[in-house]
Amino acid sequence: MHLDKLPVTADPRRAEEIGYSARESWRMLGIMSEFVEATERLASIRPAVSIFGSARTAPDHPYYLLTEEIARKLSDSGFSVISGGGPGIMEAANKGAYFGKSPSVGLNIQLPFEQTSNAYQDISQTFQHFFARKVMFVKFAAAYVVMPGGFGTLDEMFEALTLVQTKKIASIPIILVGSKFWAGLTDWVRASLITEGMISPDDIDLMHVIDQPEEVLEAIFSHYEKRGFMPSPAEREIQLNL
Predict the structure, then answer these.
(1) For every one of its 242 residues, what pLDDT tens digit does the chain have, with 9 covering 90 and above?
(2) Residue 14 CB contacts under 8 Å (≥ 6 apart), including other chains
(3) Across-strand partners of 127?
(4) Domain ranges, ordered by start, for the chain
(5) Cα separations (Å) of 42 from 29, 62, 95, 141, 170?
(6) pTM of the entire structure?
(7) CATH topology classification for 44-240
């Protein structure tokens, strides 16, 4: 008998496909549960600021100490601080907030390397899927503070810039800390992206390059001084469709 004539259940290829489809369906339910659980747990943390940076930064590094100071000042000013919940800059952000007046939030991700949860989290939420985690970074953030980092940091930064540029989220301050570190990138944006018409000249203004912790707070408060930190009804609708 030809393989195509066999009953469906006797065809190993068909059985494997059915098994894969079932796993994919359960995976969709798992993704939904991540969104629901995280949204419920983080609903009370506004206003909040998300801080990004390298997982590989040592605790005695100037970037780590600067991040800790920024996070502490944000926390004492009434902002929950959201980080990736891991080591390096993420730990510094959580640590600064943990010893401040407002909640320290860690959005952890399960990875085969690098990511281990730090001990400075008042609220800790673990994700299996990067995209669910990334939505939560944006959904609850009144501002992004981007410290020196690698591919993951750049990914989060450009994601936020794209969402603001395309008006998929409300305009928020996107603050790059460390003018020396970010100079090459901002020069390239001007020399290549703007010059060749890949973005509008005004898009460079979506990024604020800052060096001092006090300037980070000033930039955030200045952005919101005329409108308040809570999203408007129209902005809430935008968030629902993020």
Answers:
(1) 454 554 555 566 766 666 667 677 777 887 888 888 888 888 889 899 999 999 999 999 999 999 999 999 999 999 999 999 999 999 999 999 999 999 999 999 876 665 578 999 999 999 988 888 999 999 999 999 999 999 999 999 999 999 999 999 989 999 999 999 999 999 999 999 999 999 999 999 999 999 999 999 999 999 998 788 777 788 777 777 76
(2) 8
(3) 109
(4) 1-43, 44-240
(5) 20, 30, 18, 11, 19
(6) 0.85
(7) Rossmann fold (3.40.50)
At residue 190, φ and ψ (nearest 5 deg) are: -70, -45
Residue 117 and residue 85 in contact, taking contact as beta carbons nearer than 8 Å: yes
Q: Phi and psi of 187, rounded to 5°?
A: -65, -40
- Tokens encoding 191: 């020399």
Q: Name the strand (E) or helix (H) holding 217.
A: helix 213-224
Backbone angles phi, psi at 50, to 5 degrees: -90, 135
CA distance 161 to 138: 11
For residue 209, what are the β-bridge partners?
A: 176
Three-class SS of residue 192?
A: helix
Q: What number of other Cβ atoms are within 10 A of residue 194's Cβ? A: 16
Instruction: Report the distance separating Cα 199 and Cα 189, nearest Å.
Output: 9
The first and second tokens of residue 239, run together, are: 């968030």
Contact status, residue 120 vs residue 94, Cβ threshold 8 Å: yes
Question: What is each CA distance from 97 to 81, 102, 124, in whole angstroms?
Answer: 6, 7, 13
Adjacent-strand bridge partners of 124: 106
* CA end-to-end span of the chain: 53
